[in-house]
Amino acid sequence: MKPCFARTLVLAGIFASTSAVAQDQALEPVVDAANEINQAARSSQLTVDKIADTTQDRVQQFKQINRQIQGLEVYVQQLQKQIDFQQQEKAELNDSIDEVSVVERQITPLMLRMIDSLDTFVNLDVPFLSAEREGRIAGLHELMDRADVDVSEKFRRVMEAYQIEADYGRTIEAYNGEMTIAGQPQDVEFLRIGRTVLIYKTRDGKQMGVWNQLAREWQQLDSSYATDVQEALRIARKQLAPDLLMLPVFTQTAQAGD
Fold this sequence. Notes:
Radius of gyration: 58 Å
Shape: rod-shaped
Distance between the termini: 187 Å
C-alpha cells in the first residue's frame, strides 16, 4: 500500500507544477498589457503635465498681451483726443487764414489812407524837422508798393510813424538846421517844445524868430527872450536841469504873448 501512496504524491506534484506553469503562461499577456498601460499612462501624464505647463505659459502670455492691449487702447484714446484737438486747431487756423485774407484786402486801403492823412497833417503842422518827416512819409509810400514786404511789417511801419509824430507833442528838442533870412541861407539852432513853440536862433545870436502857427509864418523875436531861449536850448541838449522859462506862445486871442 505505501508505494502506491508515493506515486500518488508524485503525480500530484507534477500536476501542480504543470498547473502553475500554465497559469504563469496565461498571466504573461495580462502583465505585459498592464505594463504597457502603465507606460502609456506615464507617457500620457507627462504629456498632460507638458500641456498644463504650456497652457499656463499661454495664460500668462494672454494676460500680459491683454494688459498691453488695454494700455494701447488708453494710448490710442489719448492720441485720438490729440488728433481731434489738432483737427479743431486746423479748422480754426483755416478760418483765421481766410479772415487774414479778408483783413489784408481791407487793411491795405486803410494804410494808404493813414499815410495820406499823416502827409496832410505834417504839411499843416509846425514845420520842424521837415526833411526828416517828409522823408519818412515818402519811405512809407515806397514801402506800400513793395511786394516782398509782409502786410504786417507795412502796418508796423505805419504805426511806428504815427507813434513818432505823437511823441513829438510831448518832447523838447534842439537841433541844427538852415534858415533863409533876408534872402540869405544861414546856419541856425532850432528849439522845439512839443508842438507849442518852435524858435530859431542864428549862431551869433543876433537874430531870433518864432513860428506863428496861426498865421503860418515866421516872426522876428525880441532880443529880450535871448537869455530864456539860450537856457531852453541847453535844457533841450540836457546840459541844464529842467526849469521854468518865459517863451512866446501864440493863441487865438493874441498874436504873441508870454
